[in-house]
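Worked example

This section walks through a single chain of length 179. The input is the sequence exactly as stored; nothing has been trimmed or padded.
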Amino acid sequence: IPGFSLKGRMAQNNNKKQIVTALLKLEDASMIFPEKNASINAVNGQIPIQWPPEDKQRAGKFSAGRLQFQNKNIGSVLGTIQQTRQGFDFSGHHDSRIIPELKVGFRGSTKLFQTKTPETRIKFQQEPPAADIKINLGKLLPRAKGVMINGKIQLEGDLIFNEPGLSGSMTTSISNGKL
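Given that input, the structure is written out below as tokens.
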């Protein structure tokens, strides 16, 4: 990790309990998943944290400048993150490099504390809904080189990351489409 720091302080609150407050910083970090041929690169963030956690802390921010999957840059993400008693709440948007007009907003939560089974749930939806988009299928499938689809696209779904792995669903529709 090129840049990782955690700075904090310990103090007593009004109830004489010890509280640790800190700021976690990531600068140009990467996560690599070789078995999936995927990586998350240019990760930056500032996340305020506290132990023991309270209801909600002030919000931090995060970004990932390049998401790679199957040797393709699929875009970037930018968002906010906030610690809760159970873990973290976050929201943001993904800008696609494969379909430049496609902007996907997301909102989710991660449960890490006070649970036996850590879990992350994410809901996502295209922003704005039913936008006119042109898709070059050749960027998705090499055999479809030269094939274009355009029309009003709607996209929404959810993802769940937990001990068994990743699961989720996605609904996509195209109206007024042309091939």
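What to look for: Residues 137-140 form the longest helix (4 residues).
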